[in-house]
């Protein structure tokens, strides 16, 4: 098996809604397992114990976290980043996020380093960064 990086997100009771949202943006196959599916009685039966969305070339996983993490909610900032040279594909993902209610933090536009770059925040506060290499741009030489 090769090494890969998978985005794993925790939600305070909104994992099913968030993961369904991501499926509407990315497409792909979504599998959801509840706490009840595994006989766990110390969490809401319909809460998401684990979910996995496999889309073309990447995976997003998520779960409901009903206990506050040791550092508290919101003590860190997680960002997921798309780094690509597939303009149409990544532009489409960006556009679907916006169509489904993500907040534009930085419009997807040409930057000083030559690539298209932008950032969105989804309804659960997850930041999604986009960088699309264009011919002659910075990422082309890296």
Structural class by helix and strand composition? alpha/beta
Task: Count helical runs.
Answer: 2
Strand order of the largest sheet: 1-4-3-2
Distance between the termini: 25 Å
Total count of strands: 8
General shape: elongated
Question: What is the correct CATH architecture of the largest domain?
Answer: 2-Layer Sandwich
Radius of gyration: 17 Å
Note down, in words, how this protein is organized.
This protein is of the alpha/beta class and 142 residues long. The protein has 2 domains: 58 residues, 2,3-Dihydroxybiphenyl 1,2-Dioxygenase, domain 1; 63 residues, Signal recognition particle alu RNA binding heterodimer, srp9/1 (2-Layer Sandwich). The protein is 18% helix and 37% strand. The strands form 2 sheets. A 4-stranded mixed β-sheet has the order 1-4-3-2, covered by helices on one side. A hairpin with a 5-residue loop joins strand 7 and strand 8. Helix 1 packs across helix 2. The longest helix has 13 residues. It is elongated and about 55 Å long.
Quick summary of this structure?
By secondary structure, this protein is an alpha/beta fold.
Keywords:
2,3-Dihydroxybiphenyl 1,2-Dioxygenase, domain 1, 2 helices, elongated, 142 residues, alpha/beta, four-stranded mixed beta sheet
Lay out the secondary structure.
Layout (H helix, E strand, L loop, with lengths): L6 E5 L3 H12 L2 E6 L13 E8 L2 E7 L14 E6 L2 H13 L3 E8 L5 E6 L5 E6 L10
Parallel strand pairs: 1-4, 5-8
Antiparallel strand pairs: 2-3, 3-4, 6-7, 7-8
């Amino acid at each position: 098996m090769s090494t890969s990086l998978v985005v794993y997100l925790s939600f305070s009771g909104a994992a099913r809604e968030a993961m369904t949202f991501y499926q509407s943006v990315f497409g792909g196959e979504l599998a959801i397992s509840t706490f009840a599916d595994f006989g766990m009685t110390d969490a809401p039966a319909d809460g998401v114990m684990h979910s996995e969305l496999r889309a073309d070339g990447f995976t997003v996983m998520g779960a409901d976290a009903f206990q506050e993490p040791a550092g508290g909610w919101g003590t860190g900032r997680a960002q997921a980043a798309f780094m690509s040279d597939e303009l149409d594909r990544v532009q489409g993902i960006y556009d679907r996020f916006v169509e489904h209610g993500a907040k534009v933090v930085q419009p997807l536009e040409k930057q000083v380093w030559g690539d298209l770059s932008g950032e969105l925040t989804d309804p659960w506060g997850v930041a999604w960064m986009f960088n699309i290499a264009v011919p002659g741009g910075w990422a082309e030489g890296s």
